[in-house]
C-alpha cells in the first residue's frame, strides 16, 4: 500500500510539472475575438409614416366610422335627442359627429370634469386630513372634518382598495395623546365648518339619500353615510343601503364609541361646534392619495367622492365650499386648461338633471388626460368593459357590447332615469386609439337598459372595425 501511494504521488508531481511547462505555450495559441471589417447590410422595407399608432393608409375614415356605428346610433331605444362624437385621440381629427356641441344632461360623465379639475389643482398625491384638536387643558376635544370622502368607521374589509383612514385609528391616536396629558374623560365636539351651503344640490330630491344614491354632503362622515337598518355605519364597499340623515353627527357618535373602547370617557353627547382657533392638533389621519380616490370615484361612479372633490377644488381656488362654489371652480379650472364648448353644471357628480355638458367637452377632457401626466389617472381609472367598475356585467344598466370590446373599451358611464351617457377610449380593429362620447337625455322610460347597452355596443363596434 505504501509503495502504491508513493507511485501515485510521484505521478501527480510529474503531471503537475509537465502541465506548468506546457500551459504558457497553450495559452499563447488562443485566438482573441476581434471585429472584422465589412459592409453593413442595408435596411429592409421601411414602414410608412404613421399618425399616432396607425399608418395613414390604415387609419379610420369618417365614412368608415359612420358606416360602422350608424346602425347602433339609429337605435330607437336612444330616443329623439342624441349626441355623438368620435375622434382620433392623438390628433383630435373628427371621425363622426352628431350634435357634438349641444348640451346634454351628462349624468355621471360629469365626473370626468371633476376628476380633471381636482388632479390639476391639487395634484395626484394630495391627501385630506381628519383631525382632533384640544384646548390647553385637554378637557374638551373637537373632531374636525377635513373633507375626506373615503374615511371609514372601523377597519375596512381586507379586499377594499384603496385603504381608507378610519375613525378607529384616529380614536386610538387621540386616546394615547389624552392619556399622555393625564386625561381619561373629555367633552367631545365636532366641526363641519369647512363646507358651506345646503347639503343637497339643486335638482336633487330627498329620495337620493333614502335610496342610497348619495349622502348629504358634509366634510365629516364615515363610510360615505352608509348605514345598516339599525342606523349604524357600515362599509360602503360591501353595502348598498340607505344613507344617514345626519352623517356628521353619526360620525361623531361613532368616534365617541371608539374613544370609550380605548379607555376615554366622553361626557355627554357630542355637540356641533366650531373649533377654537387656538386649539392644538393632538391626532390626525390622512386619506389615500388623490389618484387612488379618483380611481375609486370613476370606477364606481361614486357621487359622494365627486362632490367632496369639487369642494376641495373650490377651497384650493379661493371659492366658497358649496355646491355653487364647487361647480364654478371645476368649470373655471377646465376652461383654463383649454376646454371649450357648452358646460353648465350645478353639482360635480352629475346627479342633477339641470347639468348640461356637450359631447365635445367630454372628448376634450379625455384628450387632456392623454396629454398631461398630472391628469393620467383620469384615463387609467375608467371602467373597462367586462372587467371593472360600472362596465362589469351586472354592475349597472350598461350591459356588455360585442366580444371585440371586452377589455378594450374604457369609458365613464352615466345614467339617470331617462338619461344615459358614455365617454371613453377604444382601440379600433386597426390599432388606432379613438376617443368617443355618446349622450342621450330623452330616453323612453322603459328603454334605459337598452339605450345604455347600445352605447357600450358603439364602443365594441369601433373596437371590431378598421373603419376604412
Structure description:
This protein is an alpha+beta fold and about 475 residues long. The protein has two domains: about 55-125 and about 295-465, DD-peptidase/beta-lactamase superfamily (Beta-lactamase, 3-Layer(aba) Sandwich), CATH 3.40.710; about 130-290, D-tyrosyl-trna(Tyr) Deacylase, Chain: A (3-Layer(bba) Sandwich). It is about 35% helix and about 15% strand. The protein has twelve helices and 15 strands. It has helices at about 1-30, 60-75, 110-120, 165-180, 205-210, 245-260, 290-300, 305-315, 325-335, 360-370, 375-380, 450-465; strands spanning about 50, 55, 80-90, 95-100, 130-135, 140-145, 185-190, 265, 270, 280-285, 345, 355, 410-415, 420-425, 435-440. Strands 5, 6, 7, 8, 9 and 10 form a six-stranded mixed sheet that branches. Strand 5 and strand 6 (about 140-145) form a beta hairpin. Helix 2 (about 60-75) packs antiparallel against helix 12 (about 450-465) and helix 4 (about 165-180) packs across helix 6. The longest helix has 27 residues, at about 1-30. It is flat and about 110 Å long. It starts with a helix and ends with a helix. Mean pLDDT is about 90; it is low at about 45-55.
Order of helices and strands: HEEHEEHEEHEHHEEEHHHEEHHEEEH
Mean pLDDT: 91
Number of strands: 15
- Radius of gyration, rounded? 31 Å
- DSSP helical segment count: 12
Any idea what the CATH superfamily of the largest domain is called? Answer: DD-peptidase/beta-lactamase superfamily
The computed structural class is alpha+beta
% residues in beta strands: 15-25%
Helix content: 25-40%
CATH architecture of the largest domain, by name, is 3-Layer(aba) Sandwich
Amino acid at each position: 500500500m505504501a509503495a502504491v501511494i508513493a507511485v501515485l504521488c510521484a505521478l501527480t508531481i510529474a503531471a503537475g510539472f509537465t502541465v506548468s511547462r506546457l500551459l504558457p505555450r497553450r495559452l499563447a495559441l488562443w485566438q482573441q475575438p476581434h471585429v472584422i471589417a465589412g459592409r453593413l447590410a442595408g435596411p429592409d422595407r421601411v414602414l410608412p409614416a404613421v399618425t399616432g399608432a396607425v399608418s395613414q393608409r390604415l387609419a379610420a375614415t369618417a365614412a368608415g366610422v359612420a358606416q360602422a356605428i350608424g346602425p347602433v346610433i339609429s337605435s330607437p331605444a336612444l330616443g329623439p335627442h342624441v349626441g355623438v362624437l368620435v375622434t382620433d385621440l392623438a390628433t383630435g381629427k373628427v371621425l363622426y359627429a352628431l350634435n357634438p356641441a349641444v348640451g346634454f344632461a351628462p349624468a355621471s360623465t360629469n365626473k370626468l370634469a371633476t376628476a380633471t379639475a381636482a388632479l390639476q389643482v391639487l395634484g395626484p398625491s394630495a391627501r385630506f386630513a381628519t383631525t382632533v384638536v384640544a384646548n390647553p387643558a385637554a378637557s374638551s376635544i373637537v373632531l374636525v372634518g377635513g373633507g375626506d370622502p373615503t374615511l371609514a368607521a372601523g377597519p375596512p374589509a381586507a379586499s377594499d382598495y384603496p385603504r381608507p383612514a378610519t375613525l378607529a385609528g384616529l380614536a386610538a391616536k387621540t386616546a394615547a395623546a389624552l392619556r399622555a396629558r393625564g386625561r381619561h374623560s373629555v367633552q367631545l365636539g365636532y366641526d363641519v365648518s369647512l363646507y358651506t351651503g345646503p347639503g343637497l344640490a339643486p335638482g336633487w330630491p330627498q329620495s337620493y339619500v333614502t335610496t342610497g344614491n348619495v349622502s348629504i354632503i358634509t366634510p365629516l362622515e364615515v363610510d360615505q353615510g352608509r348605514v345598516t337598518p339599525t342606523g349604524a355605519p357600515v362599509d360602503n364597499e360591501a353595502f348598498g343601503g340607505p344613507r344617514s340623515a345626519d352623517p356628521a353627527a353619526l360620525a361623531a357618535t361613532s368616534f365617541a364609541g371608539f374613544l370609550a373602547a380605548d379607555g376615554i370617557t366622553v361626557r355627554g353627547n357630542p355637540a356641533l361646534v366650531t373649533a377654537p382657533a387656538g386649539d392644538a392638533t393632538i391626532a390626525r389621519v390622512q386619506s389615500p392619495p388623490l389618484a387612488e380616490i379618483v380611481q375609486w370615484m370613476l370606477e364606481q361612479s361614486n357621487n359622494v367622492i365627486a362632490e367632496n372633490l369639487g369642494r376641495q377644488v373650490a377651497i384650493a381656488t379661493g371659492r366658497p365650499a358649496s355646491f355653487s362654489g364647487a361647480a364654478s371652480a371645476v368649470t373655471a379650472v377646465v376652461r383654463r386648461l383649454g376646454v371649450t364648448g357648452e358646460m353648465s353644471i350645478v353639482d360635480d357628480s352629475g346627479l342633477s338633471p339641470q347639468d348640461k355638458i356637450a359631447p365635445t367637452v367630454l372628448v376634450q377632457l379625455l384628450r387632456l388626460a392623454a396629454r398631461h401626466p398630472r391628469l393620467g389617472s383620469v384615463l387609467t381609472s375608467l371602467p373597462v368593459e367586462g372587467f371593472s367598475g360600472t362596465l362589469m356585467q351586472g354592475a349597472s344598466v350598461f350591459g356588455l357590447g360585442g366580444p371585440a370590446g371586452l377589455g378594450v373599451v374604457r369609458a365613464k358611464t352615466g345614467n339617470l332615469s331617462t338619461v344615459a351617457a358614455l365617454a371613453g377610449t377604444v382601440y379600433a380593429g386597426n390599432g388606432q386609439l379613438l376617443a368617443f362620447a355618446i349622450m342621450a337625455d330623452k330616453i323612453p322610460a322603459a328603454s334605459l337598459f337598452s339605450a345604455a347597452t347600445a352605447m357600450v355596443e358603439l364602443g365594441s363596434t369601433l373596437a371590431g372595425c378598421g373603419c376604412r
